[in-house]
């Protein structure tokens, strides 16, 4: 066990229910939860997710808060800076810092994005889309294999929102991710808001994407994200700066009827962050949908052509 192992050698808790993303604005709410029981109810967050890179430092207040809260909340680490699809790949330093954070916090889940983010030695600080073609799939499979081997654990890969598609795409994003799962044994972090944003921006079929995901082996989808987006005159922007939109809630309802029960749900909110009570209100909506959802109808296995 590590120097920060759980008290009394307790096992890492299982993620279940609805969690929220932990942001600095809400540190005190969670740390002071018992004293603020009449104001907010952090207990309504079943688990917490953080952006891994914000806790890479050796020490400091952020890491102190995370190590304190992990004693009471199951934890998911969500990476936003690795850039699995970047031409030169990720840095050894990034992996070593992630490994150290995993040792310190013992998260239940670790996730990354299906994207690239660096070129010519410069990190672009964005989740940029990959071409959905064979050569990109081969590259990502190699990178995911390497990452899971380094970390000695399964990693979830998230579908991303995009504002363009490549002319040479020869498969859908859902088909790409399904093939990735079958070749590497990784899991999927399914972002429902991103499905809707891409459907709107590219005229795609989010329901068909859900059907492909539902055809994966039980347990392949390890987490679901829900978030808000910004509507402009040109497109939808995945800004995570508002409450979940009604069409996304409707798509989530459809997902509960297609996907296995018990997948943990996360409410994401990264810009214009409101009071914690607003996030917890969104978590409550998700729980209400889960409570009234019919049992999922088993989907026929969707065989993806050899790719």
Molecular structure report:
By secondary structure, the chain is an alpha/beta fold. The protein has one domain: Alpha-Beta Barrel (TIM Barrel). Helices cover 35% and strands 16% of the residues. It contains 9 helices and 12 strands. Helix 5 runs parallel beside helix 7. The longest helix has 18 residues. It starts with 17 loop residues before the first strand and ends in a 15-residue tail after the last helix.
For the structure shown, list the relevant keywords:
alpha/beta; TIM Barrel
CATH topology: TIM Barrel
How many separate structural domains? 1
The total count of strands amounts to 12
> Which sheet architecture does the biggest sheet show?
8 strands, parallel, barrel
Number of helices: 9
β content, as a range? 15-25%
Helix-strand category: alpha/beta
Helicity range of the residues? Answer: 25-40%
CATH superfamily: Divalent-metal-dependent TIM barrel enzymes
Low-confidence stretches: 1-9, 299-307
Radius of gyration, in angstroms, nearest whole number: 19 Å
Question: What is the straight-line distance between the termini?
Answer: 40 Å
Give the overall shape: globular
Task: Describe the strand arrangement of the main beta sheet, using strand numbers.
Answer: 1-2-3-4-7-8-9-12
CATH architecture: Alpha-Beta Barrel
- CATH class bucket: Alpha Beta
Helix-strand pattern, N to C? EHEHEHEEEHEHEHHEEEHEH
Mean pLDDT, as a whole number?
Answer: 87
